[in-house]
Amino acid sequence: MLRYILKRILLFIPTLLVISLLTFGLSKLAPGDPVERTLQLDPNGMERSQSDLLASADRYRQTAEALGLDHPAFYFTFTSLAYPDTLYRIVQQSQRQMLGGLIARFGNWPQINRYYIQLCRFHSELAIHGKEIAPDSAIVIGRSLRDLFIFGDTARIRASLAAIRQSMADSTVRRALWGGYSGLVSSYGAVESEATPQLLYIPVIYWYGAKNQYHHWLMSFLQGDFGVSYDDSRPVADKLREAIPITLLLNGMSILLIYLLGVPLGVFLATRRGQKRERALTLGLFMLYSLPPFWVATLLIVFFTTPDFGMQWMPPIGLKDLPSDTSFFSWFGANATRLVMPVFCQMYVGLAFLSRQMRGSLLQVIGQDYITTARAKGLPEGKVIWKHAFRNALFPLITLFATIFPAAVAGSFIIEVIFNLNGMGWFAYSAVMTRDWPVVFTVVMLSALLTLVGNLVADILYGVADPRVRY
Amino acid sequence: MKRKQSTRLLFFALAVNAILAFHSCTSDKKGSPENKVTVRVAQDPDRLFPLMTNNAVSSQVLSHLYMSMLEFDSKTLQLTPMLAKALPTVSPIDTGANKGGVAYTFEVNENAHWDNNTPVTAQDYVFTLKAAFNPKLDANVWRGVLDFISDVQIDPSNPRKFTVLTSRKDFLSESACGNFPILPEYIYDPQGLLKGISFHDLTDTTAVKKLADGDPRLQQIANSMSDPKYSREKGFVVGCGPYEFVEWVTGQRLVLRKKANWWGSSLEGKATFFSAGPDEIIYKPVKDNAAALTLIKNGEVDVMSKINPKTFLELQQDDAMKDKFNFYSPSTLEIAYIGLNMRSQKLNDVKVRRALAHLIDVEEVIKTAMKGFAVRAIGPILSSKPYFNKSLKPIEVSLDSAKALLAQAGWKDSNNNGTVDKVIGGKLTEMVLQFRVAAPNEVGKNIALMFQDFARKAGVAVEVVPEDPQVYLDHLKKRDFDLFMASVMLDLSPDDPHQYWHTSSDSPTGSNRFGFGNAQSDAVIDELRGALDANRQSQLYMQFQQIIYDAQPAIFLFNPKERIAVAKRFQVEPTLRRPGYHENEFILK
């Protein structure tokens, strides 16, 4: 048994690693630039009227370095020979994407790199000589140049270069910028004419070692440092500490009630099979099972917490404002009724499920010979059910435990958001919506760990419940 | 027997629950007859450190904790002395390194004190500027706004008097250098780390680089200020405003309490920001709008703004709500618009853009999508501003005009498929426009759908694309759109068109997403920035509005009205400034 547990715990490691890799990979694929987010650009299309906060290249680089984004993402890159091993050094995400687009089309990094250098050089020349040339020309060239820094498709690049060329008709512009422009055109010409798309088909692995973003995050995570939230720069651990107690309480009560009510209900249904009461209860349970909790939660709030329907029987949603130093029991006393609706919404689906499972499992057991024997021996019905049948019908209860145990800590974002309870679900939901990756990573890893622990505990319990189970 | 027992047990459980519920309901209903106001906010603030936030809720909270030298009075809408004794004296600089700039001389009100009873001095002003300019501190918001300041000189004979030197003339510099929160040096830099660093060095590109590379004090103070305790702990979030920070429980409440002997009490009535009505202000974060509505209905919160227009109408007609709440719909400083991509081949002709403007019935939009809670906007300047160009007339909905303009621009339905088309670059191009909307913007989505309906009649096919806000923003940055729905939040300071309309803002992360601008418009915007003469400013504003009107880079829709419900026990004066009310001015009836 101990060997089995150790083996399972050892298996946690690769599982968690895979989950961490998936989460990390997805965060890299998700839209949005963490640097711009940190530089406080508004994501909702509601813009400020203050002077433009948009980061200069320097500010952008500093922020990227502070976030560790100037390092490669992973230990290695599996890519094609067309890509360089140093693309990550271009910290500006939009420029990196532009260069990536060009490489994907032409496959010749040396030429593309030269074009990029020419682009930067031309940009500097424009900054120096911009005031010497006619404003209209400076605007056209500036815009085209900005496009060249974003777009990696040939049509747009050609259009931008053509627009710059038109401005070169002016002799002042020609004098000031011709050198840079001709360098740009010839370097881009080389990108197109010296394309090596065949390199795109030659696989290559670049090894970066331990100095990468994933390694840094993983090592910190293992040392208990979950990082700092992008939202408010607070340690993620501090934020977790605030959210966990509420979820534990809410879900602990729900789980307790699911088992306290679900088990006897399931036994009751099994022992009264075919009776009217059983049929009525079964119908009720099926109905409960089919009602989505978010809908029930909204209905309960509207009907029972507002005076609209004359049934304001329940207190308002959310938790009562109490001083921070309130003891747990006083806090619980003040908030007990406020937890009634969320606990109900959290538990009724589980209750319906568990009681049905319990009923089915018990019915199977009751039909077996040894139960008939027990009855024939004249044992009281209660003893037959609870002592002989119940233990063998425990499996569904254990299976359900493995499912709901992780949720006890990870929380239910629907219930917590609707009832305005700032537990783990609410916390995770906010983090996902704002792409607060350090928080998302931590919550996902924690949930994964708890799922694994839940499954392990369930497996152990199977053995406790039925000695025939061998490990 | 057993059944009886279980029935009794059931009754007992129900009775306990009922008692608990009754107890809780009644104790909750005792509520707060005291002079406390509970304000619903849609989210928690991000932090309460003024230099590192531009979050709307943070700003709302911080406005009661910190004070600036000058502030806009929400009644008169004029820049008014707050910590300053009077408005600054302004004098042009004709010699020296800052030649061509302006000097603003301020004096701090002699009554202004911090919580430890030490006076607010010029040194605190300089300290705050140094902190904002510390390259190691993530204070981009303020650095961007204050970058025109080149030095500050403290009067050696008066520690409360100082002169701010600017390197250039800028019509916004007076409000900018006076309107940022002043931090107490004794709280944020108890070791005096920044004392030994000159402010001038922090504004000089070469010197600041040297400092950033070689002086550990900058990093040390940046680390200290970034510590979360300066953002959320009592004793560390300290200003000289009328309220003190009490506590912040994430997701539940943030409490401010009126200071007992606040230095500004004697100035009450001189300006709205000197008012301190409620004894306590409690901010209650509630994300879900439906949940927030139930809280206001059962009296758990006293103030709620940004109520959906339809719901607001319903609440106004609800008898129970009418008994308990007053409803206000003051104007806002927001303008909603449909942005057009002037660099798209389909929209680069002004006739086409004007045709699109004829294809939306803005009055109908206001009536339907906003339920009347908006006023039509003509351009990027609010009609309430003194320099609004009244000669500009709204572009009326007209299918015939739209069709005629499209035809003039060469767009005709040559293949009879119901959509106009044109040969561009040798290729037949149909007028199919992509209209991007951020998905959470429900009103925006409705407007886009209404526009789609109108436009179809003129042979313009509009594809409405609601998308995740981040994806939406990415598309705007790459100019991958024909139309987009957005709104701009203005403020009470004079409008600076630079951010939205100057060609230098036509960059991936810039706000000139329209691709608008040429040398002429840039010249007007640049001149406006440097114009300190009111008449010239007004002329330039008029000219600027005319240019925008003629170029039609956007279809300006409306200036929405705020929708606010406030508990009747408070006497309230709504205001133009966000969020439409000032909770510190609430008076308990």
How would you sum up the major sheet of chain B? Answer: 6 strands, mixed
How would you state the average pLDDT of chain B, rounded? 90
Principal-axis shape of chain A equals: elongated
Question: What is the gyration radius of chain B calculated from CA atoms?
Answer: 28 Å
**Beta-strand proportion of chain B:** 15-25%
Order of helices and strands of chain A: HHEHEHHHHHEHHHHHHHHHHHH
Helix content of chain B: 25-40%
First-residue to last-residue Cα separation of chain B: 61 Å
- The assembly state of the depicted protein chains is heterodimer
The chain pair forming the largest interface, with residue counts per chain, is: A-B, 78 and 87 residues
Describe the fold and architecture.
- The complex is a heterodimer of chains A (471) and B (589).
- Chain A has 471 residues and is an all-alpha fold.
- Chain A is built from 20 helices and three strands.
- Chain A has a two-stranded antiparallel ribbon.
- Chain A starts with a helix and ends in a 6-residue tail after the last helix.
- Chain B is of the alpha+beta class and 589 residues long.
- Chain B contains 21 helices and 23 strands.
- Chain B has a six-stranded mixed beta sheet with strand order 14-20-13-19-17-18. A four-stranded mixed beta sheet of chain B has the order 1-10-9-8, with no helix packed on it. In chain B, strands 4-5-7-6 form a four-stranded antiparallel beta sheet.
- In chain B, helix 20 (519-530) packs antiparallel against helix 21 (534-551).
- The model of chain B is unreliable at 1-32 (pLDDT under 50).
- Classes of the chains: A mainly alpha (471), B alpha+beta (589).
- At the A-B interface, strand 1, helix 3, helix 6, helix 10 and helix 12 of A face helix 1, helix 4, helix 11, helix 18 and strand 19 of B.
